[in-house]
Design brief:
Distance between the termini of chain A: 38 Å
Shape of chain B: globular
CATH topology of the largest domain in chain A: Rossmann fold
Shape of chain A: elongated
CATH class of the largest domain in chain B: Mainly Alpha
Order of helices and strands of chain A: EEEHEEEHHHEHEHEEHHEEEEEEEEEE
Strand content of chain B: under 5%
Mean pLDDT of chain B: 88
Order of helices and strands of chain B: HHHHHHHHHHHH
Number of domains of chain A: 2
Oligomer: heterodimer
CATH superfamily of the largest domain in chain B: MetI-like
Mean pLDDT of chain A: 91
Low-confidence stretches of chain A: none
Chain lengths: 357, 275
């Protein structure tokens, strides 16, 4: 027996001439919480729907719990899915919505009712079992959709952007609730989202997709610390990583950052001289520095403060975003000194945008 | 002009137009119970002095209205049944699949709707005659009406199906149902109102159908009420009270159905099935 609950090997999907999924390889451990994340049109939803059996794959192997599932209809895959629109059956009460899958499988009425009550108790829906979906609030509908998935005890949960219809506060709350639920049930979960914060905070394993290919997959912090290319580096983290074109200095111990007025910073790792580079640094890795230890001196463009942190945008080309977790008396037009740990620099090839070193 | 006044003027115009539109209906009921001389009186009276209620019974018996109405019901029900069963499936497919072939199909269906019955009757008559269908005249008329009214039904019901989100079906599939199960458990109940309303509209249309019935049904015992009404007409028709009594008996049941269901019909046509 394999420890992988879901194994995808060389999955391809075409819509006519459009190549929606390209050679997707993905192994999902039993009990893992995996997030598929990427900009819209990257193929994450298509991949999820292929798992569910709502789309047929053009080639490759799709194995769920050790059984090959290519072309098997959704009802025989034993997966549960939570839809973005929740897809609650409007003509059924909450209880009927919850027990629908059980009734189809021929579970007897009393047993189905008992299970519905049991699940409703854990998700806080006990007092709503007799209501219709139209009589519920957004958060309650969301919970019904989740409960409908839980009640079946399926081989895996599939989530298709389940939080995107909720307001910001409720979204943060449901994020924790879903994660807590996963801790409790230990069920294999695949979670599609376009929101990298959701992916980073909820998942054990994040899969970043773009244009039908997997750009990178790994633990959230691994993606944050060592993005394999410029796309992943810019996608993970908020505000996004800063990128500055650069070249290595002639002494091999410095980098020349190509602002309008180029600036030199020290850099110890070996870089081929003359190679065109992109230097990436995250906004939160900057610190203000005095005259003595400043590595960069840049003019300030805009300053925004949230109370907890200060967002500075420099008046340079390309502009940098700097986040300071403190208040700073900085005004637009000022020149500020900045320093950072050179270990926090990310280097990419300017042409291929692939990580160096 | 303030809004309240404008609303009142608008309402007055609406009532006036409705009165003009409904006047023939009123005239039908009134003429039916007039005496022979009151019918032709000039100026006409708008309320009969001496209502002749017995005319309904005498027309019902002499004209065998019961048999005509029964034939109308049989023909209309047959056509509605056939259209509902075939048209629902057709509308569902047209609602769920979108490609060049489906678009072409939809266009052809709408084209069928444009062709008038009086144009279609000759080829249909010849065709049915060759097939021997005219030996079963009511069946032949049911088939012809079904073909004629199907597009209308399909277009209406397709819109209803399109208002049922596809995620609901997908949820049912993932929940363990087959495509057929999902259709019958989820989609059909949600589209029920739209289908019902369309079926009622088709029924009312078929109940009053004349061209096909008149052309294809020779035997008087199979003729529907519309053809029966036409049999009054001759070169010297003057029994208007009888005609109006017949018409009243023919129209009133349909009118009653419409009044009873009008709220549902209007809401079914305007809102989606999901409210």
């Amino acid at each position: 027996m394999t420890v992988h609950q879901i194994e995808l090997t060389g999955i391809n999907k075409y819509y006519g001439a459009y190549h929606a999924l390209r050679d997707i390889d993905l192994k999902i451990r039993k009990g893992a919480f995996v997030a598929l994340v990427g900009p819209s049109g990257c193929g994450k939803s298509t991949l999820l729907r292929s798992l569910a059996g709502l789309e047929t794959i053009s080639s490759g192997d799709l194995v769920i719990a050790g059984a090959k599932m290519n072309g098997v209809p959704p009802r025989k895959r034993d997966l549960a899915m939570v839809f973005q629109s929740y897809a609650l059956y409007p003509h059924m009460t909450v209880e009927q919505n919850l027990t629908y899958s059980l009734r189809i499988r021929g579970v007897d009425k009393a047993e189905a009712k008992r299970k519905a009550e049991e699940v409703a108790a854990t998700t806080g829906l006990s007092h709503l079992l007799g209501r219709y979906p139209r009589e519920l609030s957004g958060g309650q509908r969301q919970r019904v959709a989740m409960s409908r998935a839980i009640i079946r005890n399926p081989k895996a949960f599939l989530f298709d952007e389940p939080l995107s219809n909720l307001d910001a506060a409720l979204r943060v709350h449901m994020r924790k609730e879903i994660r807590a639920l996963h801790e409790r049930l230990k069920a294999t979960s695949v979670y599609v989202t376009h929101d990298q914060i959701e992916a980073m905070t909820m998942a054990d394993h994040v899969v970043v997709m773009r244009q039908g290919i997997i750009e990178q997959q790994g633990a959230p912090l691994e993606l944050y610390d060592r993005p394999v290319n410029k796309f992943v580096a810019g996608f993970i983290g908020s505000p996004a990583m800063n990128f500055v074109p650069a070249s290595s200095g002639s002494d091999g111990k410095s980098l020349l950052l190509e602002f309008e007025e180029p600036q030199t910073i020290p850099f110890m790792r070996p870089v081929k001289a003359g190679q065109p580079l992109l230097v990436g640094i995250r906004p939160e890795h900057f610190e203000l520095a005095g005259d003595s230890d400043a590595m960069l001196r840049l003019p300030v463009g805009a300053v925004e403060t949230t109370g907890a942190s200060t967002y500075i945008t420099t008046a340079t080309q390309p502009e940098l975003v700097i986040v300071l977790n403190s208040r700073a008396a900085i005004r637009s037009g000022e020149i500020i000194g900045l320093r950072f740990d050179p270990a926090h620099l990310h280097l990419f090839d300017q042409q291929t945008e692939i990580r160096l070193g | 002009m303030n809004f309240a006044l404008r609303d009142k003027v608008m309402l007055a115009i609406a009532v006036l137009l409705a009165a003009v539109y409904l006047f023939p209906l009123y005239w039908m009921y009134v003429t039916a119970i007039k005496t022979g001389s009151a019918m032709f009186a000039s100026p006409p009276s708008f309320w009969p002095a001496d209502p002749q209620w017995s005319i309904y019974r005498s027309v019902w018996e002499s004209r065998n209205v019961g048999r005509y109405l029964w034939n109308s019901v049989v023909i209309a029900s047959g056509a509605v049944l056939m259209i509902t069963i075939l048209g629902t499936g057709c509308a569902y497919v047209l609602a769920r699949y979108r490609n060049a072939w489906v678009d072409a199909g939809l266009f052809l269906i709408l084209m069928l709707q444009v062709l008038p019955a009086s144009l279609m009757i000759t080829p249909i008559f010849v065709g049915f005659s060759q097939l021997g269908l005219l030996d079963y005249p009511r069946t032949a008329v049911i088939l012809a009406i079904a073909a004629k009214s199907m597009p209308f039904f399909v277009v209406l019901v397709r819109a209803t199906f399109m208002s049922v989100p596809i995620e609901l079906e997908e949820a049912a599939l993932v929940d363990g149902n087959s495509r057929f199960g999902a259709f019958f458990h989820i989609v059909l109940p949600l589209a029920r109102n739209g289908i019902l309303v369309s079926a009622i509209l088709i029924f009312m249309q078929a109940f009053g159908e004349f061209v096909y019935s008149k052309s294809m049904i020779q035997a008087i015992e199979y003729q529907p009420a519309s053809v029966g009404l036409n049999s009054f007409m001759g070169p010297n028709t003057n029994e208007w009270n009888n005609i109006m009594a017949y018409a009243a008996m023919y129209v009133t049941p349909i009118l009653a159905i419409f009044v009873l269901l009008q709220r549902r019909i209007v809401s079914g046509l305007t809102s989606g099935a999901l409210k």
